[in-house]
């Protein structure tokens, strides 16, 4: 059984600090909220899915689909959700706009564990039941690193988990050469208001996205 976890619980500091209003996961994407779009994309490919959040606005918007899980970092959220991991688990990020090609690459992957991203970001993770135990070890390593007070771009994020999985130093934000890393295109995340404004400007110039 495949399940999906859509993580939508970021602190919003960069988004709100740059002038963003409301949860960034709810920005309008061609007439529908970003989270609703991601749900529409993933729903046909999994038996169950949950929005993992601690944001009241998101709980109110999706009361029957949300799972309230307080946590500090992405890696902690993935670990906290272990009771709902499936035979195959897909982890998506709620503030990422997934193009149709990127989502197809994610849902059709057959490897036991794969990180999906580009040279700057990791946008998704999928894993199967046989790697649960070594993945939990990597998650614990990444969480301990974050709890130690480390301060760098990858702290607590999927990059940190990827590097823990590969046995690499966690204080570096780079990678992507390992066989468990798959480069995907057609995604973008909205950390700052300017990211969304750039997307809107490009959309006005080039036309609608492929849904």
Polypeptide structure, described:
- The protein has 8 helices and 11 strands.
- It has one domain (2-133, 180-203): Spore Coat Polysaccharide Biosynthesis Protein SpsA, Chain A.
- It is α/β, with parallel strands linked by helices and 211 residues long.
- The protein has helices at residues 13-17, 34-42, 56-61, 74-80, 100-108, 132-147, 158-166, 193-206; strands at residues 2-7, 28-29, 32-33, 48-53, 66-68, 88-93, 96-98, 113-117, 122-128, 181-183, 187-189.
- The model has no long low-confidence stretch (mean pLDDT 87).
- 36% of the residues lie in helices and 22% in strands.
- The strands form 3 sheets. Strands 5-4-1-6-9-8-10 form a 7-stranded mixed beta sheet, with helices on both faces.
- It is globular.
What is the element layout, followed by pairings?
Layout lengths: L1 E6 L5 H5 L10 E2 L2 E2 H9 L5 E6 L2 H6 L4 E3 L5 H7 L7 E6 L2 E3 L1 H9 L4 E5 L4 E7 L3 H16 L10 H9 L14 E3 L3 E3 L3 H14 L5
Parallel strand pairs: 1-4, 1-6, 4-5, 8-10
Antiparallel strand pairs: 2-3, 6-9, 7-11, 8-9
Helix pairs in contact: 4-6, 6-7
H-E string = EHEEHEHEHEEHEEHHEEH
How many structural units, i.e. domains?
1
Q: What general outline do the C-alpha atoms trace?
A: globular
Number of strands: 11
Taking pLDDT < 50 over at least 5 consecutive residues as the criterion, the unreliable ranges are none
Proportion of strand residues: 15-25%
CATH superfamily: Spore Coat Polysaccharide Biosynthesis Protein SpsA, Chain A
**Number of discrete helical segments:** 8
Distance between the termini: 25 Å
What's the story with the biggest beta sheet? 7 strands, mixed
Q: Give the class-level CATH name.
A: Alpha Beta
Quaternary organization? single chain
* CATH level-two architecture: Alpha-Beta Complex
Query: Which fold name fills CATH's third level, the topology?
Result: Spore Coat Polysaccharide Biosynthesis Protein SpsA, Chain A
Helix content: 25-40%
Query: What is the topology, as strand order, of the major beta sheet?
Result: 5-4-1-6-9-8-10
Q: How confident overall, as mean pLDDT? A: 87
**What's the Cα radius of gyration?**
16 Å
């Amino acid at each position: 059984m495949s399940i999906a976890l859509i993580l939508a619980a970021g602190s919003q500091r960069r988004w709100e600090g740059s002038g963003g209003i409301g949860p960034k996961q709810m920005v309008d994407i061609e007439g529908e909220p970003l989270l609703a779009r991601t749900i529409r994309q993933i729903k046909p490919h999994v038996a169950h899915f949950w929005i993992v959040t601690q944001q009241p606005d998101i709980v109110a918007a999706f009361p029957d689909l949300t799972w309230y899980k307080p946590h500090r970092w992405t890696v902690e959220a993935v670990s906290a959700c272990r009771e709902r991991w499936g035979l195959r688990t897909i982890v998506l990020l709620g503030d990422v706009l997934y193009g149709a090609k990127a989502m197809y690459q994610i849902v059709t992957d057959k490897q036991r564990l794969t990180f999906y991203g580009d040279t700057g970001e990791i946008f998704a993770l999928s894993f199967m039941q046989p790697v649960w135990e070594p993945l939990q070890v990597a998650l614990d390593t990444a969480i301990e690193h974050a709890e130690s007070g480390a301060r760098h771009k990858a702290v607590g994020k999927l990059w940190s988990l990827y590097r823990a999985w590969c046995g690499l130093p966690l204080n570096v934000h780079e990678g992507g050469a390992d066989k468990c890393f798959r480069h995907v295109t057609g995604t973008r995340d909205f950390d700052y208001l300017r990211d969304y404004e750039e997307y809107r400007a490009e959309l006005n110039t080039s036309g609608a996205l492929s849904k």
